[in-house]
């Protein structure tokens, strides 16, 4: 049912009042036309057109033309005002009325003044006024044959750099290999097979792209973008029907080494588009799918511009109606050191593990590595079925981001227990505890449960307990502290606190639902029990030893300023004492970290092995190896590294062998 407008209602009341003998003025008729236009009721507008205009364009053509233009430029807030104080009469019984149009579009506001000619024609045996419509009534400069065009002005995606300006996610030229179907002639099968062989994909993958609905014989059909670094295109050009085009594509120069951190972009999916269309996304747009590409999507994406214009029948630009320029995405500069990231990745490659490197005087995150990894360039340039299946079937799960995962820290946690005991006075550092054998159980209340250690030393002080990593010493210390004091002291190191980083990462925890038994308390003292820590948090718990007791906050972006997370967490005396013990862990030939000893450096560190098994009698369990190290004198680097499944591979010493070369590479 059509909406009754104000002017229709006025006309109806005039008729009911016997005023039908009065003719509508040209202003009345034009106002009814303008109101229909303002409401974008184009079918009703058409009823006000002159006979001559209707002969040139059917109602369907008229409605479709307006709808196509207005929908294309996304017209909103349309306001049309007639100006009748200066009407002009013309010869032949016509009259010219002026009006003003204001509208908002996807390219910004459009406003113009124009005029329309009304002519008197017979309707229902009476003379009435009708609009002598012509294309200029859409936009003043339009003529027959002109069209209104809309062009998206693409914003350039912001790039991501490391602290030194090395590109981590950049927009770079790349070769796109494709096929022009009509040039295949009678060699179609041979060409497809040859191309598939060069690209290491199946012929069916190529045929699937050639069978897309939009494909025409003369069009270039992109098949794949050459992998990053591949520049030899001659073999492709020798295949009949194959062509090469150069395009700018998202590129990740460090490939797998930064994959989990940076992530990758892909063409927006139908599901994503349905959710994000109102935010300005459209089919074919590129969107961040994982990592920082996804997290900082709104900053990196920028904002597309829109150009609304009139072109003549020959396709030439005639007039710009409105234009909003594109706003390029922001550039991000991370605190990361890409070369260090790459070297750590090289050390870990082949293992399932993770490593976090920190600038210990500022808290800047210099490296965030997770292995195994995947090549993010493949998702942009063309991912083969074979490669996808290989990654998905890999039991080490290359898509799993381990530097955001929490796991048991094992003995690298002992520095926290030591600091807590010294602070509360339950540890007298020079006091030697009498410990006999490799097993210890408090009493029968433990039900046969026992704590084990590796080195059989009859008397142990704090220095020995850290240097030789004595579980029993720390278990006894925790029992002396008691559950409440232990939990309160350890929690001060940032447990249960969410880090203000853009990643989704669960806080480190001491337990699932509280420490409820002495056995759990004893195990917790040396980083087992139900303790779970992220590598980032663990690395930060070692920063007090290089900042006179202050624990620093991790910083991801270069622009961020040094921030203290926990002020005066450890007193000066405790800092110096534990720091000296960590130096001995590496320097002492019998220390658990001696494998990391470098004569030209002063490496301090702590090794740790976390058992992953159901119970003490489980002989099938595995072990995760940890090593945390820093240079005491240079104070330029702190590394926390964890490698899974080091049982039968040297335990934590296997990890130490991966950490040592990193320090050796530094100046």
Structure description:
The protein is an alpha+beta fold and 667 residues long. It folds into 3 domains: 6-144, Nuclear Transport Factor 2, Chain: A, CATH 3.10.450; 160-333, 2-Layer Sandwich (Ribosomal Protein L30, Chain: A); 406-665, DD-peptidase/beta-lactamase superfamily (Beta-lactamase). It has 23 helices and 25 strands. Strands 6, 7, 8, 9 and 14 form a 5-stranded mixed sheet that branches. The protein has a 5-stranded antiparallel sheet with strand order 16-15-25-24-23. A hairpin with a 4-residue loop joins strand 15 (353-359) and strand 16. The chain starts with 5 loop residues before the first helix and ends with a helix. The relative contact order is 0.08. Residues 1-21 have low confidence and may be disordered.
Q: Care to count the β-strands?
A: 25
The coarse overall form would be elongated
CATH architecture of the largest domain: 3-Layer(aba) Sandwich
Catalogue the unreliable spans: 1-21
**Ends distance:** 82 Å
Radius of gyration: 37 Å
Tally of DSSP helical segments = 23
Major sheet attributes:
5 strands, mixed
CATH level 3 topology of the largest domain: Beta-lactamase
SS-derived structural category: alpha+beta
- Strand proportion, as a percent range, falls in 15-25%
> Class of the largest domain, according to the CATH hierarchy?
Alpha Beta
Helix content: 25-40%
The number of domains is 3
Chain-averaged pLDDT: 92
> What's the CATH H-level superfamily name of the largest domain?
DD-peptidase/beta-lactamase superfamily
